Amino acid sequence: MTAIKRVELGVYGAVIAFFVAAGMITSLLRHNGWYALLFAVVGSMAVVSVALERAGSSPRTRRAIRIATMWCFAGLFGWLMTAKAVNFQMPQVVFDLGAATVSGALIQLIISRLLAPFLFGNAFCSRACWNGAVFELVRRPARKAGGIWQVLRYLYLALTLAVPVLLMHAGFSTTGSEQTRRLWVLAENGLIFAFAAFTLPWWGSRAYCRLLCPALTISRWLAPWSRLKVSGRAELCTSCMLCEQQCPMTVPIVSFVTADRRVAARDCILCGRCVEECPTEALSLGFR
Ligand code: SF4
Ligand code: SF4
């Protein structure tokens, strides 16, 4: 086994250990042992998904990656969010902080958006996100949105922080009642899926991620430091642009490849579609 392979396996092991530890801490804080199991499953599935991508892109590995991603969706959205009324979205972080509670939402935000990006960039979006798992099922080429939309994501982040503060000021919070929290989870995610469905014909399957997602608005500032990135070999690239046509995040992939640079784009979610589409195998996903 080469030294690089050993380092890579070490990274995978460290990430799984990190998820297990985070799950155990959450279990202790929330007095519920299921969190440890669920975090372990989500961490392992995300790592399996990246490892499969690294092993090579074929219809079979793509299917296996989708299954791993749907497991994360089932665990996070189907069980933890819907059945147990745990909310991982940004407003819940504010509600919990307002109630002086360290919750799953804050732990998830720290792991997936402030720590993991140094290793895995925005890969959470394509490997473990419950909304992203659904978006990954849809293949719709993206069209770049204009300048105003680039500002909108910051306004939306401010809104997701300000609205809970205003509601708490008016005496409303989701922290007290499980039923209120469940309704909030379903309403908030329903709006996200509705926005995604409405914008799909114009801006592709990842319009919500590119234009609004507050979590990606944070992690995109750390993503260029990611160890895991798409790499290109300029000598194999024919500038056919198939990769950019399939990129759901409108990343200017070819400009990186022809400049002999790894794709250090803030919005790359490491979904691997460009790698899959490239007819000359000029692209690959790898750690460095
Ligand atoms: S798909 Fe491959 S060959 Fe075509 S432009 Fe992209 S990197 Fe170059
Ligand atoms: S550059 Fe490639 S890996 Fe990154 S978002 Fe676009 S298609 Fe996915």
Question: What can you see in these coordinates?
Answer:
The radius of gyration is 19 Å and the shape is globular. 65% of the residues lie in helices and 3% in strands. The mean pLDDT is 87. The chain has helices at residues 3-30, 34-55, 59-83, 90-98, 104-115, 117-120, 124-127, 130-135, 147-169, 178-203, 207-211, 214-219, 242-246, 253-258, 273-277, and strands at 228-232, 283-287. It has a two-stranded antiparallel ribbon. It folds into two domains: 1-222, no CATH class; 223-287, Alpha-Beta Plaits (2-Layer Sandwich). 41% of the residues are buried. By secondary structure, it is mainly alpha-helical. One iron/sulfur cluster binds next to helix 15.
Tell me about the biggest sheet?
2 strands, antiparallel
User: Strand content of the residues, in percent?
Assistant: under 5%
Mean pLDDT: 87
SSE class: mainly alpha
Cα-to-Cα separation, first versus last residue: 17 Å
Task: Set down the secondary structure blueprint.
Blueprint: H1 3-30, H2 34-55, H3 59-83, H4 90-98, H5 104-115, H6 117-120, H7 124-127, H8 130-135, H9 147-169, H10 178-203, H11 207-211, H12 214-219, E1 228-232, H13 242-246, H14 253-258, H15 273-277, E2 283-287
Antiparallel strand pairs: 1-2
Helix pairs in contact: 1-2, 2-3, 4-9
Bound molecules: iron/sulfur cluster (2 copies).
In short:
The protein has 288 residues and is mainly alpha-helical. It contains 15 helices and two strands. Helix 1 packs antiparallel against helix 2 (34-55), helix 2 (34-55) runs antiparallel to helix 3 and helix 4 runs parallel beside helix 9.
